[in-house]
């Protein structure tokens, strides 16, 4: 028997007896919203309500055109500052993931995503009924087109492993939860 045959004979034939386990995520006790908040806090981000959101709205705030459609604090808001000079950017999201604390934002008409990149403070509007337990479920529900996942504030590390926040984007990420419970 040659080396090739020896190697092939040592390989099991047919279907594997121990297939790879399917990806899964078990929610901790409580709701999917509470699991999302916990994951978000581990990333150094936090949630705010609509009352707190009102405190961030001012002349140096830039709001993505579709972000305030269902948020009372943003009704009638008009951008007064150029996006690149804004201190706060507010954007809408399409989904949030409890497992990772990530939010998904979509580019396209009325959704430039620049509000999530340029200002030092990024506020993301998340509807409670759009929070899913896991990344796998999010991938099944995401709309077609360009979608980005945001998982906490921008951060990078140098060669010595020193983590520095806010280098390539916002230094702070806040999530404003709106709508009824999941």
Can you walk me through this structure?
This protein is α/β, with parallel strands linked by helices. The protein has one domain (30-178): NagB/RpiA/CoA transferase-like (Rossmann fold), CATH 3.40.50.10420. Helix content is 17%, strand content 25%. The chain has 4 helices and 11 strands. It has a 5-stranded parallel sheet. A 4-stranded mixed sheet has the order 7-4-5-8. The chain has a two-stranded antiparallel sheet with strand order 9-10. The N and C termini lie far apart (63 Å).
Q: What are the defining features of this structure?
A:
4 helices, elongated, 11 strands, 4-stranded mixed sheet, alpha/beta, 182 residues
Query: Largest beta sheet, briefly?
Result: 5 strands, parallel
CATH top level label? Alpha Beta
Q: What proportion strand?
A: 15-25%
Mean pLDDT: 81
Number of strands: 11
Instruction: Quickly give the CATH architecture.
Output: 3-Layer(aba) Sandwich
Q: Largest beta sheet: what is the strand line-up?
A: 1-11-6-3-2
Low-pLDDT stretches are none
What is the CATH topology descriptor?
Rossmann fold
Residues in helices, as a percent range: 10-25%
Task: Count the domains.
Answer: 1
């Amino acid at each position: 028997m040659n080396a090739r045959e020896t190697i092939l004979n040592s390989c099991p034939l047919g279907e594997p007896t121990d297939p790879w386990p399917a990806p899964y995520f078990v929610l901790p006790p409580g709701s999917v919203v509470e699991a999302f908040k916990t994951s978000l806090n581990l990333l150094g981000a936090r949630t705010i309500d609509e009352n707190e959101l009102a405190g961030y709205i001012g002349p140096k705030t830039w709001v993505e055109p579709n972000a305030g459609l269902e948020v009372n604090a943003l009704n009638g808001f008009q951008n007064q500052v150029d996006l690149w000079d804004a201190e706060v950017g507010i954007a809408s999201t399409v989904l949030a993931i409890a497992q990772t604390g990530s939010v998904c934002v979509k580019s396209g008409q009325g959704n430039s995503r620049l509000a999530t990149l340029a200002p030092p403070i990024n506020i993301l509007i998340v509807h409670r009924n759009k929070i899913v337990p896991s990344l796998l479920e999010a991938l099944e529900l995401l709309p077609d087109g360009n979608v980005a996942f945001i998982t906490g504030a921008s951060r990078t590390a140098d060669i010595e492993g020193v983590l520095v926040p806010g280098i390539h984007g916002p230094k702070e990420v806040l999530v404003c939860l709106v709508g009824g419970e999941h």
